[in-house]
Amino acid sequence: MSPPDPARRACVIGWPVAHSRSPLIHGYWLKHYGIEGSYGREAVAPEDLAGFIGRLSSLGYVGCNVTLPHKETVYGLVEVQDQTTRRIQAVNTVYVEGDRLIGFNSDAYGFVAHLRSVSPDWRGEGVNVLVLGAGGAARAIIAGLLGEGVSHIAIANRTEARGRSLAEHFGEKVSSYPWAAIPRHLPACDLVVNTTLLGMAGQPPLEIDLDGLPPGAAVADIVYVPLETDLLRQARARGHPVVDGLGMLLHQAVPGFEAWFGVRPEATPQLRALVEADLAGK
Q1: How many CA atoms are closer than 13 Å to the CA of 200, on its beta-carbon side?
Q2: Domain limits for position 210
Q3: Are 145 and 28 in a shared domain?
Q4: How many Å is the maximal CA-CA distance in the chain?
Q5: Does the pLDDT of residue 5 top 60, yes or no?
Q6: Is the pTM of this model over 0.90?
Q7: Dihedral class, residue 171 (left if φ above 0, else alpha if ψ from -120 to 50, else beta)
Q8: Are both 140 and 232 inside the same structural domain?
Q9: Domain identity same for 187 and 101
Q10: Torsion, Cα of 81, 85, 90, 95 (10° steps)
Q11: In the β-sheet with 218-221, what is the strand arrangement from edge to edge?
Q12: Mean pLDDT of the chain
């Protein structure tokens, strides 16, 4: 990868995009590492997406992050080189390399990196996972966990057909079950991951009882507003290790910053405190 040029520009694109904390994260790193560059937001409507991506370099950008609802569409607009992104079939990071646009997905990396930061001794071998949901986040997290060598992943989704389709996409280590089957699978779980928006501020609650989950099993939630969801509060009260959604957000940003600005940043406690304060409206 070529060394960084002065005043490199990157951005996050989405529709809408005003809620994104990515400018706060990347802005912190730019200042912390003394890099002359910028990171902003671009609200890009779906009908304008292909044109914007095609003009990314001519608009003065060295790359961009991609958020909802564009990740799957951008996958088909850029060059994808790594197997993990091909398995996910969605792109959240794009960088310019000569006359090429390279895309990859860092969500799988972000989830596993945060999991390891919370539990440094965590290893995937022999682990049974229950994933709640079958959307894009579930796809990324399943790809990341399979890459870590977990034994089996059970998907529980409210729309059974979507869960079955996702399980078939990933193969024999992944199975799909009805939402009502969650209590039956908890006793065999080493890790439970909520990838739905249930429990997020403004969304319906995630109604799940963790009775039956073995002691020592970890519970993760990709929701970070609120920072401690009802699921994590229940898990913490039972003594389970918990993994919140904010850490995944911070860690998934690392590879993109490195691709655009030439420095691999760290997701430090100071950065986390900054984003937590922003989420709290301080």
Answers
A1: 14
A2: 109-247
A3: no
A4: 56
A5: no
A6: yes
A7: left
A8: yes
A9: no
A10: -40
A11: 174-178, 152-157, 128-132, 191-194, 218-221, 242-243
A12: 95
